[in-house]
Protein backbone atom coordinates (compact mmCIF):
# COMPACT_ATOMS: atom_id res chain seq x y z
CA UNK A 1 0.00 0.00 0.00
CA UNK A 2 1.25 3.48 -0.91
CA UNK A 3 2.01 5.91 1.91
CA UNK A 4 -0.45 8.49 0.54
CA UNK A 5 -3.26 5.92 0.53
CA UNK A 6 -2.47 4.86 4.09
CA UNK A 7 -2.42 8.51 5.18
CA UNK A 8 -5.83 9.00 3.56
CA UNK A 9 -7.11 6.04 5.58
CA UNK A 10 -5.85 7.73 8.74
CA UNK A 11 -7.61 10.99 7.87
CA UNK A 12 -10.82 9.06 7.17
CA UNK A 13 -10.49 7.52 10.64
CA UNK A 14 -10.39 11.03 12.14
CA UNK A 15 -13.53 11.98 10.20
CA UNK A 16 -15.33 8.84 11.41
CA UNK A 17 -14.30 9.44 15.02
CA UNK A 18 -15.55 13.02 14.76
CA UNK A 19 -19.07 11.67 14.30
CA UNK A 20 -18.96 9.45 17.39
CA UNK A 21 -20.02 11.90 20.10
CA UNK A 22 -23.25 12.75 18.29
CA UNK A 23 -24.00 9.15 17.33
CA UNK A 24 -23.31 7.78 20.83
CA UNK A 25 -25.65 10.43 22.24
CA UNK A 26 -28.38 9.50 19.75
CA UNK A 27 -28.04 5.80 20.58
CA UNK A 28 -28.10 6.54 24.32
CA UNK A 29 -31.28 8.59 23.88
CA UNK A 30 -32.96 5.65 22.12
CA UNK A 31 -31.65 2.63 24.02
CA UNK A 32 -30.42 4.10 27.31
CA UNK A 33 -26.85 5.01 28.26
CA UNK A 34 -25.68 1.54 29.35
CA UNK A 35 -27.70 -0.61 26.94
CA UNK A 36 -26.88 1.65 24.01
CA UNK A 37 -23.15 1.58 24.76
CA UNK A 38 -23.21 -2.22 25.19
CA UNK A 39 -24.91 -2.57 21.81
CA UNK A 40 -22.40 -0.28 20.09
CA UNK A 41 -19.36 -2.18 21.37
CA UNK A 42 -20.92 -5.57 20.65
CA UNK A 43 -21.54 -4.65 17.02
CA UNK A 44 -18.13 -2.95 16.89
CA UNK A 45 -16.42 -6.13 18.13
CA UNK A 46 -18.14 -8.18 15.43
CA UNK A 47 -17.13 -5.70 12.71
CA UNK A 48 -13.52 -5.65 13.95
CA UNK A 49 -13.46 -9.44 14.04
CA UNK A 50 -14.34 -9.43 10.33
CA UNK A 51 -12.06 -6.54 9.32
CA UNK A 52 -9.05 -6.90 11.65
CA UNK A 53 -9.41 -10.36 13.17
CA UNK A 54 -8.33 -11.57 16.61
CA UNK A 55 -4.85 -10.83 17.97
CA UNK A 56 -2.32 -13.63 18.28
CA UNK A 57 -2.49 -14.19 22.02
CA UNK A 58 0.69 -16.28 22.10
CA UNK A 59 2.76 -13.47 20.59
CA UNK A 60 1.23 -10.69 22.70
CA UNK A 61 2.53 -9.59 26.09
CA UNK A 62 0.24 -10.65 28.98
CA UNK A 63 0.78 -7.18 30.49
CA UNK A 64 -0.44 -5.58 27.27
CA UNK A 65 -3.50 -7.82 26.94
CA UNK A 66 -4.60 -7.65 30.58
CA UNK A 67 -3.63 -4.14 31.72
CA UNK A 68 -4.24 -2.34 28.43
CA UNK A 69 -7.38 -4.37 27.77
CA UNK A 70 -8.90 -3.35 31.10
CA UNK A 71 -7.81 0.28 30.71
CA UNK A 72 -9.30 0.38 27.21
CA UNK A 73 -12.59 -0.99 28.53
CA UNK A 74 -12.73 1.45 31.45
CA UNK A 75 -11.96 4.39 29.15
CA UNK A 76 -14.60 3.46 26.60
CA UNK A 77 -17.17 2.96 29.37
CA UNK A 78 -16.31 6.36 30.85
CA UNK A 79 -16.61 8.02 27.44
CA UNK A 80 -19.89 6.37 26.45
CA UNK A 81 -21.60 6.88 29.81
CA UNK A 82 -20.39 10.48 30.21
CA UNK A 83 -22.17 11.23 26.93
CA UNK A 84 -25.20 9.08 27.70
CA UNK A 85 -25.76 10.62 31.15
CA UNK A 86 -25.49 14.23 29.93
CA UNK A 87 -28.67 16.21 30.66
CA UNK A 88 -29.03 17.70 27.18
CA UNK A 89 -27.32 17.91 23.80
CA UNK A 90 -25.36 21.07 24.63
CA UNK A 91 -23.98 19.47 27.78
CA UNK A 92 -23.07 16.41 25.70
CA UNK A 93 -20.73 18.52 23.58
CA UNK A 94 -19.29 20.29 26.64
CA UNK A 95 -18.59 16.93 28.28
CA UNK A 96 -16.87 15.67 25.13
CA UNK A 97 -14.43 18.59 25.27
CA UNK A 98 -13.20 17.38 28.67
CA UNK A 99 -12.39 14.06 27.03
CA UNK A 100 -10.24 15.89 24.47
CA UNK A 101 -7.75 16.82 27.17
CA UNK A 102 -6.16 13.41 26.54
CA UNK A 103 -3.64 14.55 23.86
CA UNK A 104 -2.15 17.11 26.24
CA UNK A 105 -2.18 14.63 29.15
CA UNK A 106 -0.58 11.95 26.96
CA UNK A 107 2.43 14.15 26.33
CA UNK A 108 2.73 15.06 30.03
CA UNK A 109 2.54 11.41 31.14
CA UNK A 110 5.03 10.38 28.44
CA UNK A 111 7.66 12.60 30.06
CA UNK A 112 7.44 10.63 33.31
CA UNK A 113 6.53 7.17 32.00
CA UNK A 114 8.49 6.82 28.75
CA UNK A 115 11.32 9.33 29.25
CA UNK A 116 9.88 11.55 26.53
CA UNK A 117 12.00 14.67 26.08
CA UNK A 118 10.12 17.95 25.97
CA UNK A 119 10.94 21.64 25.98
CA UNK A 120 9.54 24.23 28.40
CA UNK A 121 6.74 24.83 25.89
CA UNK A 122 4.96 21.94 27.60
CA UNK A 123 4.03 24.31 30.46
CA UNK A 124 2.21 27.06 28.50
CA UNK A 125 0.69 24.38 26.23
CA UNK A 126 -0.81 22.51 29.18
CA UNK A 127 -2.05 25.69 30.83
CA UNK A 128 -3.63 26.89 27.58
CA UNK A 129 -5.51 23.60 27.10
CA UNK A 130 -6.78 23.69 30.69
CA UNK A 131 -7.79 27.33 30.32
CA UNK A 132 -9.73 26.40 27.18
CA UNK A 133 -11.74 23.83 29.15
CA UNK A 134 -12.31 26.34 31.95
CA UNK A 135 -13.45 28.93 29.38
CA UNK A 136 -16.02 26.47 28.00
CA UNK A 137 -17.32 25.41 31.41
CA UNK A 138 -17.57 28.92 32.84
CA UNK A 139 -20.52 29.95 30.67
CA UNK A 140 -21.06 33.65 30.04
CA UNK A 141 -19.11 34.85 33.09
CA UNK A 142 -15.60 33.51 33.56
CA UNK A 143 -15.05 32.72 37.23
CA UNK A 144 -14.28 29.72 39.41
CA UNK A 145 -17.79 29.96 40.86
CA UNK A 146 -19.33 29.74 37.37
CA UNK A 147 -17.21 26.68 36.57
CA UNK A 148 -18.14 25.04 39.88
CA UNK A 149 -21.85 25.72 39.37
CA UNK A 150 -21.72 24.23 35.89
CA UNK A 151 -19.90 21.10 37.06
CA UNK A 152 -22.35 20.75 39.95
CA UNK A 153 -25.27 20.36 37.53
CA UNK A 154 -23.95 16.95 36.43
CA UNK A 155 -20.82 15.86 38.30
CA UNK A 156 -21.19 12.26 37.08
CA UNK A 157 -20.89 13.10 33.37
CA UNK A 158 -18.11 15.63 33.82
CA UNK A 159 -16.26 13.33 36.23
CA UNK A 160 -16.48 10.36 33.85
CA UNK A 161 -15.25 12.46 30.93
CA UNK A 162 -12.22 13.78 32.82
CA UNK A 163 -11.43 10.33 34.24
CA UNK A 164 -11.62 8.96 30.71
CA UNK A 165 -9.13 11.54 29.46
CA UNK A 166 -6.65 10.57 32.20
CA UNK A 167 -7.13 6.83 31.62
CA UNK A 168 -6.72 7.12 27.83
CA UNK A 169 -3.53 9.16 28.23
CA UNK A 170 -2.15 6.45 30.52
CA UNK A 171 -3.33 3.75 28.11
CA UNK A 172 -1.48 5.36 25.20
CA UNK A 173 1.78 5.41 27.13
CA UNK A 174 1.46 1.89 28.52
CA UNK A 175 0.50 0.56 25.08
CA UNK A 176 3.57 2.17 23.56
CA UNK A 177 5.77 0.37 26.09
CA UNK A 178 4.21 -3.11 26.11
CA UNK A 179 2.28 -3.66 22.86
CA UNK A 180 5.31 -4.49 20.69
CA UNK A 181 3.24 -3.15 17.76
CA UNK A 182 0.55 -5.80 18.34
CA UNK A 183 -3.09 -4.73 17.91
CA UNK A 184 -5.52 -6.15 20.46
CA UNK A 185 -8.39 -3.76 19.70
CA UNK A 186 -10.82 -6.54 18.67
CA UNK A 187 -10.32 -8.32 21.99
CA UNK A 188 -10.53 -5.01 23.85
CA UNK A 189 -13.87 -4.19 22.20
CA UNK A 190 -15.21 -7.59 23.27
CA UNK A 191 -14.05 -6.97 26.86
CA UNK A 192 -15.76 -3.56 26.83
CA UNK A 193 -19.00 -5.06 25.52
CA UNK A 194 -18.92 -7.81 28.16
CA UNK A 195 -18.45 -5.27 30.96
CA UNK A 196 -21.30 -3.10 29.68
CA UNK A 197 -23.71 -6.04 29.28
CA UNK A 198 -22.86 -7.09 32.85
CA UNK A 199 -23.79 -3.57 33.99
CA UNK A 200 -26.98 -3.78 31.91
CA UNK A 201 -28.15 -7.05 33.49
CA UNK A 202 -27.17 -5.93 36.99
CA UNK A 203 -29.30 -2.81 36.56
CA UNK A 204 -32.31 -4.99 35.55
CA UNK A 205 -33.01 -2.78 32.54
CA UNK A 206 -34.95 -3.98 29.52
CA UNK A 207 -34.18 -3.22 25.89
CA UNK A 208 -36.71 -0.58 24.78
CA UNK A 209 -38.88 -0.81 21.68
CA UNK A 210 -37.51 1.64 19.11
CA UNK A 211 -37.98 2.42 15.43
CA UNK A 212 -35.86 1.43 12.46
CA UNK A 213 -33.88 4.70 12.37
CA UNK A 214 -32.66 4.06 15.93
CA UNK A 215 -31.11 0.78 14.78
CA UNK A 216 -29.57 2.56 11.80
CA UNK A 217 -27.92 5.07 14.17
CA UNK A 218 -26.69 2.14 16.29
CA UNK A 219 -25.11 0.53 13.23
CA UNK A 220 -23.59 3.86 12.17
CA UNK A 221 -22.04 4.39 15.62
CA UNK A 222 -20.58 0.87 15.72
CA UNK A 223 -19.26 1.16 12.15
CA UNK A 224 -17.72 4.58 12.77
CA UNK A 225 -15.97 3.36 15.90
CA UNK A 226 -14.78 0.00 14.56
CA UNK A 227 -13.76 1.23 11.10
CA UNK A 228 -12.09 4.24 12.70
CA UNK A 229 -9.81 2.02 14.77
CA UNK A 230 -9.07 -0.27 11.81
CA UNK A 231 -8.25 2.61 9.43
CA UNK A 232 -6.20 4.46 12.04
CA UNK A 233 -4.03 1.41 12.61
CA UNK A 234 -3.23 1.31 8.87
CA UNK A 235 -2.59 5.04 8.78
CA UNK A 236 -0.13 5.21 11.67
CA UNK A 237 1.83 2.12 10.58
CA UNK A 238 2.08 2.82 6.83
CA UNK A 239 1.23 6.50 6.34
CA UNK A 240 2.58 9.94 7.23
CA UNK A 241 2.51 9.86 11.04
CA UNK A 242 3.46 13.54 11.38
CA UNK A 243 0.54 14.66 9.23
CA UNK A 244 -1.91 12.35 10.99
CA UNK A 245 -0.74 13.39 14.46
CA UNK A 246 -1.26 17.04 13.55
CA UNK A 247 -4.64 16.42 11.93
CA UNK A 248 -5.90 14.45 14.94
CA UNK A 249 -5.65 17.54 17.14
CA UNK A 250 -8.47 19.15 15.17
CA UNK A 251 -10.90 16.35 16.08
CA UNK A 252 -12.59 18.42 18.86
CA UNK A 253 -13.75 21.08 16.40
CA UNK A 254 -14.86 18.53 13.79
CA UNK A 255 -16.66 16.53 16.47
CA UNK A 256 -18.42 19.59 17.91
CA UNK A 257 -19.43 20.81 14.44
CA UNK A 258 -20.93 17.43 13.52
CA UNK A 259 -22.69 17.15 16.90
CA UNK A 260 -24.18 20.61 16.44
CA UNK A 261 -25.58 19.53 13.07
CA UNK A 262 -26.69 16.00 14.01
CA UNK A 263 -28.20 16.80 17.41
CA UNK A 264 -29.67 20.13 16.38
CA UNK A 265 -27.86 21.90 19.21
CA UNK A 266 -26.54 25.45 19.22
CA UNK A 267 -23.21 26.52 20.72
CA UNK A 268 -22.19 30.04 21.61
CA UNK A 269 -19.04 31.79 20.44
CA UNK A 270 -17.40 31.25 23.82
CA UNK A 271 -17.53 27.47 23.30
CA UNK A 272 -15.70 27.69 19.97
CA UNK A 273 -13.10 30.00 21.52
CA UNK A 274 -12.50 27.43 24.27
CA UNK A 275 -12.30 24.59 21.75
CA UNK A 276 -9.71 26.56 19.80
CA UNK A 277 -7.66 27.08 22.97
CA UNK A 278 -7.74 23.34 23.73
CA UNK A 279 -6.48 22.57 20.22
CA UNK A 280 -3.74 25.21 20.37
CA UNK A 281 -2.64 24.03 23.81
CA UNK A 282 -2.49 20.40 22.68
CA UNK A 283 -0.52 21.34 19.56
CA UNK A 284 1.98 23.29 21.65
CA UNK A 285 2.38 20.26 23.95
CA UNK A 286 3.00 18.05 20.92
CA UNK A 287 5.45 20.56 19.43
CA UNK A 288 7.37 20.69 22.70
CA UNK A 289 8.33 17.03 22.18
CA UNK A 290 9.76 17.59 18.70
CA UNK A 291 13.53 17.34 18.47
CA UNK A 292 15.45 19.92 16.38
CA UNK A 293 16.02 17.42 13.55
CA UNK A 294 12.32 16.55 13.47
CA UNK A 295 11.30 20.20 13.42
CA UNK A 296 13.64 20.85 10.51
CA UNK A 297 12.08 17.90 8.67
CA UNK A 298 8.55 19.22 9.29
CA UNK A 299 9.50 22.63 7.84
CA UNK A 300 11.17 20.92 4.88
CA UNK A 301 7.98 18.93 4.08
CA UNK A 302 5.82 22.02 4.33
UniProtKB/TrEMBL annotation:
Residues 7-137, 158-284 form the EamA domain. It holds the Pfam family EamA. It comes from the Bacteria. The chain crosses the membrane at residues 7-25, 31-52, 64-85, 97-113, 120-137, 157-173, 185-202, 214-232, 244-263, 269-287. Keywords: Cell membrane, Membrane, Transmembrane, Transmembrane helix. One of its GO terms (cellular component) is plasma membrane. SUPFAM superfamilies: Multidrug resistance efflux transporter EmrE. The keyword Membrane applies. It is a multi-pass membrane protein. It is found in: Cell membrane. It comes from Zophobihabitans entericus. This is Aromatic amino acid DMT transporter YddG.
